[in-house]
Amino acid sequence: MKATVAAYLVTLPALVGLDFVWLSLAADRLYLPALGDILLNGFRLAPAPGFYLVFAFGLVLLAVRPGPGAGSLRLAVRNAALLGLTARASYDLANLATPRQRTASVAMADLVWGVVLSALAGAAGHAVFA
Length: 130
Fold this sequence. Notes:
By secondary structure, the chain is mostly helical. The chain has helices at 2-35, 47-64, 73-97, 104-126. The protein starts with a helix and ends with a helix. It has four helices and no strands. The chain has one domain.
């Protein structure tokens, strides 16, 4: 239990920090040109912590926490990447299907970032078990 909590406490800031860097770099170059008409000026702060808290919890329980293949960084990274793919695909593909402004290039970039972000955060959380 202590190791799981410790993994969460490592995974969460890795997830938030890496995503902050991505959003800082990609917002003006990727999201704003393609989605400018539907984006808010700024963002709603309240939902963001909820997403990160829940997603980090999912990463730890479904990808990082030891189970079959315990101690395997490769397994943790693979599972984290698959969880990221599933989560981002749910969001990006649904948004590609409905809003007029959503573009395939934004959806694909966001999807790839979700896989990379999840894999990196999962690797960080796995370090607690190594």
